[in-house]
Amino acid sequence: MEKKHIALIMGGYTGEAVVSEKSAAVVAQHLDRERYQVYPLHIYPGNWYLEAEDGKHWPVDKNAFTVQKDGELIRFDGVFNIIHGSPGEDGKLAGYFDMLGIPYTTCDALTSSITMNKGYTKAILSGIEDLHLARSLQLFSHGPETATEVLAQLRLPYFVKPNNGGSSIGMSKVKQAEELEEALSKAFQEDRQVLVEEFVTGREFSIGIYRANGKVTVLPATEIISSKEFFDFEAKYSPGVSEEITPGRMDEREVDRVNRIAEQVYRKLNCKGSVRMDYFLEKDTANFFFIEINTVPGQTETSLISQQVRATGKTLKEFYTELIEEMWA
Fold this sequence. Notes:
By secondary structure, this protein is α+β, with helices and mostly antiparallel strands. The protein has three domains: about 5-105, Rossmann fold; about 115-135 and about 200-325, 2-Layer Sandwich (D-amino Acid Aminotransferase, Chain A, domain 1); about 135-200, Dna Ligase, domain 1 (2-Layer Sandwich), CATH 3.30.1490.20. About 30% of the residues lie in helices and about 30% in strands. The protein has helices at about 15-30, 90-100, 110-115, 120-125, 145-155, 180-190, 235, 250-270, 305-310, 315-325, and strands at about 5-10, 35-45, 45-50, 55-60, 65-70, 70-75, 80, 130, 135-140, 160, 170-175, 195-200, 200-210, 215-220, 220-225, 240-245, 275-280, 290-295. The relative contact order is 0.14.
């Protein structure tokens, strides 16, 4: 069997590049080398290159997404995308690969760009049965009246977050009115759009969903118990700051309801590959509240998706093979 050439793309143009490189190292270890010839490609502003086994860098020709290495022209049958943030998660690379006719493992350009915008994503998902959305305001500019407007329309406490950010950078929890101005300034430093949401008290979960063999599979959810006020950058990427339980503590009815909602979210947003959805089960009511969706979730050894795949008894190698084969389905 002739091996398919797979470009494993990593890096990116944001602070999340560090996490992307870690994810890629894990993916590289678990890809089936009998089926695939894997090429690690690093994508940084003005510097796209293939890293050879001897550590040498070979530039990528962006016109065709090919690499000329030792006189050999390398073309790719498909792309395993593990770039968090821009340009891998926000649809820019998806559009580029679409124009070149190269398949990839993640969502298409439209879904990728919409899901980077928390406000627009929520607007699309409203109307799914049993899916609740925290009351929120989407802000497009930061003027002297902004804080007053928020306080008039929403009940404290709030989450204030950059609308397009990832990894909870620039996010604050606001308990008192006088903390709001600083939180808005911090969020507007990260993004030109900011989302202010009423705070939902409840248990936090994260769940992986993917399409393979023609069907959508919902993985076992992970419950996140954080010692921090919320699951922020430090809690996500520092060991010991949050406790993660996979599968999370839900009764059978809750699992059925969450799985039904998760599949509908995946379908309604027209997702591809593996995504991760974060949600709350509200205190006292157990109502499902959607938080956000990640279309290029982390794949490090301790990442939630990796934990959830293992909880099903599947190996990461089998899981990644399914994701790759689905590109050509």
